């Protein structure tokens, strides 16, 4: 008699694909984690002998964390756009897990998900690595099951090479920032509150506040005269009426000739300014570092290449 367990073979995590709202476009996924139902456990003491018993109480879905490439991610970017504008856009979809032969082995469906966090990698002019967007979202419902057959539609795409963290441009009205060499990684976070209603075992998700981060920027000190003057006037001297500006972070193609997508910045002000630590007799370029606070961000100009 054939052993069914012996007929099955383990497989390596070769490829993933994320599709949203039944769309044909699928995002290239570098990694995926989480998204399963878990239960909370309560421990209670009983009796004079200090015995303890444990029992399960409420259940909830864990967030799904993914790293997504540029290829095929237009639907994801539109979802992020809505989230940042406080439209509370809920999306459903499926993450397909496939082996190295692109054969789908496992399906992870989710429904009514809200974005929790959108994290961008450090933008560094000296970097030669491809760019990936980290997206964490929380669904209200999930369903996981083995998939029999089927093949991923589009896991290989040369458009993924369009986004490299070295190709970027920071713009702030009234300031020359052509000397900026690095922006530290940053994340936009959306608060979500679970609401248990009636006899439903899983909670309904309610969006709360959205948090836009500060930007930590590095540039050559030689080109920082305007930024230092802004810092001196706005922070040190407290001159009214010059604190806040508008601007943008533009993500460029490798040739720097095309804007792939842009993050528009509003209510931008300077927070700190300092000279980066350096050693005597060092041949490194003298750099400064400053932080900008941002009141609001909007994702804009999504390239048709996505």
What would you say this structure looks like, in words?
The structure is a single chain. By secondary structure, the protein is mainly β. Helix content is 9%, strand content 50%. It contains three helices and 18 strands. It has helices at residues 4-7, 74-84, 225-236; strands at residues 15-20, 26-34, 37-46, 51-61, 64-68, 91-98, 104-120, 123-124, 133-138, 141-146, 168-172, 180-183, 186-195, 204-211, 215-220, 244-252, 259-275, 287-300. It has a seven-stranded antiparallel beta sheet. The mean pLDDT is 84.
What is the quaternary state of this protein? single chain
Largest beta sheet: what is the strand line-up? Answer: 8-12-15-18-17-16-11
Main sheet: strands, sense, barrel: 7 strands, antiparallel
Provide the helix percentage. under 10%
Uncertain residue segments: none
Alpha-beta content class: mainly beta
The percent range for strand residues is: over 45%
**Distance separating the two termini:** 51 Å
Count the E strands.
Answer: 18
Radius of gyration equals 24 Å
Report the order of strands and helices.
Answer: HEEEEEHEEEEEEEEEEHEEE
Count of separate DSSP helical elements: 3
**Could you tell me the mean pLDDT?**
84
Shape: globular
For this entry, give a set of tags.
306 residues; mainly beta; seven-stranded antiparallel beta sheet; six-stranded antiparallel barrel
Task: Give a summary of the structure in a few sentences.
This protein has 306 residues and is mostly beta strands. The chain is 9% helix and 50% strand.
């Amino acid at each position: 008699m054939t052993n069914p367990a012996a007929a099955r073979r383990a497989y390596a995590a070769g490829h993933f694909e994320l599709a949203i709202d039944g769309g044909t476009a699928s995002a290239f996924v570098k990694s995926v984690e989480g998204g399963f139902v878990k239960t909370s456990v309560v421990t209670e003491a009983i009796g004079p002998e200090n015995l303890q018993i444990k029992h399960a109480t409420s259940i909830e879905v864990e967030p799904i964390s993914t790293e997504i490439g540029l290829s095929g991610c237009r639907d994801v970017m539109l979802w992020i756009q809505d989230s940042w504008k406080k439209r509370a856009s809920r999306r459903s979809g499926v993450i397909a897990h496939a082996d190295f032969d692109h054969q789908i082995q496992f399906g992870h469906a989710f429904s009514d998900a809200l974005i929790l966090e959108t994290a961008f990698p450090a933008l560094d002019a000296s970097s030669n690595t491809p760019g990936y967007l980290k997206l964490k979202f929380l669904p209200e419902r999930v369903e996981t099951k083995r998939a029999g057959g089927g093949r991923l539609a589009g896991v290989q795409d040369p458009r993924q090479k369009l986004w490299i963290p070295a190709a970027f441009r920071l713009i702030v009205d009234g300031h020359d920032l052509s000397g900026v060499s690095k922006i530290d990684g940053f994340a936009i976070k959306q608060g979500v509150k679970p609401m248990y209603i009636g006899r439903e075992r899983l909670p309904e998700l309610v969006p709360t506040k959205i948090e836009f981060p500060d930007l930590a920027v590095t540039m050559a000190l030689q080109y920082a005269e305007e930024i230092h003057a802004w810092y001196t006037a706005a922070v040190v001297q407290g001159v009214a009426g010059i604190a806040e500006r508008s601007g943008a972070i533009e993500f460029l193609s490798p040739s720097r000739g095309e804007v792939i997508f842009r993050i528009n910045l509003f209510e931008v002000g300077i927070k700190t300014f300092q000279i980066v630590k350096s050693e005597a007799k060092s041949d490194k370029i003298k750099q400064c570092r400053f932080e900008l606070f941002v009141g609001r961000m909007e994702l804009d100009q999504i390239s048709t290449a996505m």
